[in-house]
What does this fold into?
Amino acid sequence: MVALRTCEQPSLNNLEISIHVSNVDNNYQIQGSANNEFDYSKRAQWLRAAVLGATDGLVSVASLIMGVGAVKDDIKAMLLAGFAGLVAGACSMAIGEFVSVYTQRDIEVAQMKRERRMRQSGDNKEETEREKLSNPGQAALASALAFSVGAVVPLLAAAFIKQHKVRQAVVVVVASLALAVFGAAGAVIGRTPAVKSSFRVLIGGWMAMAITFGLTKLMGSTGL
It folds into this structure.
């Protein structure tokens, strides 16, 4: 009996050790999963600004080129309209993103101050939390650059084509390919279905170009 109890005691200890190790591993896995979700959450904020900015730039300038091309064959007029759209759109995106992120930052800072007054935990934690907030200047710059990158694509596609109809067809094809790439890139980075994302972006771009072309053509034909 003594020998039996002696043999049983190490097995119980081993069982306790294995359970403890298993619990520690599970805790690490849960913490790692939470950290990954936090990283993807922060990445999504910058991804949203970059993908939306590039897509807006591409669709806006491509639609402008198609609209001007609906009533004029002059390549200079098309390129000037596209360049004006690039500059105006980049400034608009930068200002809009700056105001949006700054407003969100002010709301979060006010919330942190209210929570600090309630718990009276000191200033160190508040300063640490302030450092984690989004930077409005960086968000504005990212949006402007992304818009400019997207807007350059149809401008370059139209700049080297002399024939009017061929130029418009090339702009549509290049813009469509770029939209599909932007949609797929955003989906891959954000871990969402790439085909659905590309399809949505592509359909939206086609609609914008078609509506701009059609309405401008209608206004030009009526002499307005």
